[in-house]
Amino acid sequence: MKIKNITTFLLKVPLGDQRFYSSQCAFPERNSLLVRIETDTGICGWGESGQYGPGEPVATFIETVLKPRLIGKNPLDINVLWEDMFTGIRDFGRKTTGIEAMSGIDIALWDIAGKFYNKPVYELLGGAFRKKVLGYATGCYYRGEDVLDYKKSLQNLKDEASGYIDAGFTALKIKVGLLHVKEEMERIAAIREAVGDDIILMVDANHAYNFHTAKRIGKFLEEMNVHFFEEPVVPENIHGYKTLRETLNLAIAAGENEFTRFGYLELLKNECLDIIQPNIGCAGGFTEAKRIEALASAYHVQVIPHCWGSGIALAAALQYCATIAPSPHTAFECAPENSPMIEYDKNVNPLRDSLLTETFNVNDGFVQIPDGPGLGVEINMSVLEKYLTKS
Fold this sequence. Notes:
By secondary structure, this protein is α/β, with parallel strands linked by helices. Helix 8 runs parallel beside helix 9 (about 240-245). The model has no long low-confidence stretch (mean pLDDT about 95). The protein contains 15 helices and 16 strands.
């Protein structure tokens, strides 16, 4: 079996008046870059990358740099192909676009392997510790009215958070970092009041704060019984992460903006994090994500993958979650704090909710891991064509 062709599909869905904001940017659209690898036997694999910012540079990188290296190669030689791609781009692509491009290709190669062997990816990666994973709703972003007058939006915020719990979620991650700290504290307190004390609550700043501000709000998060504080400071602030971890009595999480095991090694050896969050579509695909997990286990750091993008990204993250060992290992996986969770963004996302022939659902707080061959999902090509910007 040989690789016959590699095609990229840039998808965009304008959100109109449903746009939302994090501390760093506006989201006027949902976008993603899908990768399809075709073989000479007719087996095709799907992957995803280009989830952070514009997908055009990633598509160009795939088409002009990586595709010529892969045509004619055996798609089952996944480790060999990963190393060939990485060493081929090491001088100019060890971070960001180059690794994102590799990630989408690697996911597609594992999808091909699963279809070839008629096994889900999780079996090829060594088996499943679990067949379902706790889903946490990511929501309570900023809307236009939040910035203009946050007090008027507090009731809407409480209603939104309560709606996620009513929908079956038992864990919720909310956004901070755009408003003054005192205003953010009011938002957090309102949400905790709305969902109650039994809900696992997490807070994501998207690296909005300097160290002393992150420490100040982190002390308040302790009072609110927050499980983890995600990206409190910028990714480059290694010392800030380490010191916050030593100072605060809650877990510090980060890693969605890091790439490959070499980047994660710096975070781990400097004792920066309690939880690392590799994104399968950005950090190097399945191949590298398993290496990152192995590194994390050596440092006794928990892995909870970041997930953003279409249904392909979610399927890949679920396959990965199946294979992550509990940390620490227990006879029965009863404590959610010791187990991986899957991020389930609750903003409008047709690329996740309509793109696949079968939709993911949250039942009793959990998302079922697909057990079909490869990623275990199929693309609805008519939906893909509806949102296609570039092929």
